[in-house]
């Protein structure tokens, strides 16, 4: 079982406790029960209650990549155990093992059998199936793409297994909501009597200065229900208060319910980053943290500077930000290798007027050495993998092995998830 510093504990119901004491006392009067027996009975009562209320959640982590779901589970503070974790990519496996050497690992989900799934007896399945079959670059081949086979195989198992998980959390790219794979998923959920809610969420809604709009699905096996009203529509926000309020401010400026576990987790995250943005009573999304909160000051940026060829050819399509910006684009696995739509770059030299540079560059042809000289003044650099990991809300204890190349680090991070968003959703899913 994972050891957490801050378990969420449900207090033992005092009425039950009083009942046991009352019963024991009556018995004691009648049968002269010894104090030792009385103590034992109370001890067993407490043990039993603790076991049922604090039993570690059994999580089966599929398509585990570098372990983003595992990290999110840890960040909830809930007691849990990863009973199995499946991943085929060796680089991602290296990162996973580097951070979680103890977790049992398996490889291809295609090899998962009904007997194994039964034996795992997961309370929760957490998964981010491959997203390429649902993206434009991946040709949107959906269920016809071989990379969807393992998801279809899993859905087949979930239709059959006699002990289906009581909860499911799935993450994917925008586009999944229109796919046949999603239809197959909903068919299984409906057959097995789940209730579910779909979301499109980005970390920016949680006050993180990084866009990563993603599809999420939360499902619960009935008769269990969600702590909010579910709808057939995709929700584009979580149905709870996401306001920055500390204990001295009792109210906020939204009308949404406060979910304590979520509220505490977000407050803890934001107060560790920048107290100034807190205690406004307004939404975290209205006060995104500046990128400076995520950048390394001691970065040797010379080796991260964009190459001349890239600057000259692609300067018009770069998304350029600086340390005072409160946003940057989604980092994908092609970052540092491809330019278009793979993530922002940073202007390291803020003393140079970017508008005047671009006004002049606009009037010079590609290949003109003067154009390159002007662009070079901006000192445009890539974000480091560490900075990207921070923007994706990976905690500082999570590290990438030094043996990986920078390109490998970009690839595995680009495939991963935003930890704060998934932690929030897991807390919502686990709320009774
Ligand atoms: C979107 S990524 C998951 C990222 C993960 N949540 C993380 O935090 O890194 C999908 C992962 O599924 C893995 N994968 C694809 N097909 C698989 C299969 N049949 N069995 C196990 N893993 C698979 C890929 O190697 C990839 O790492």
TrEMBL record:
It is an enzyme of class 2 (transferase). PROSITE patterns: C5_MTASE_2, SAM_MT_C5. Pfam families: DNA_methylase. GO terms for cellular component: nucleus. InterPro entries: C5-MTase, C5_MeTfrase, C5_meth_CS, SAM-dependent_MTases_sf. The active site is at 131. Keywords: Methyltransferase, S-adenosyl-L-methionine, Transferase. Its EC number is 2.1.1.204. One of its GO terms (biological process) is methylation. One of its GO terms (molecular function) is methyltransferase activity. Belongs to the class I-like SAM-binding methyltransferase superfamily. C5-methyltransferase family. This is tRNA (cytosine(38)-C(5))-methyltransferase.
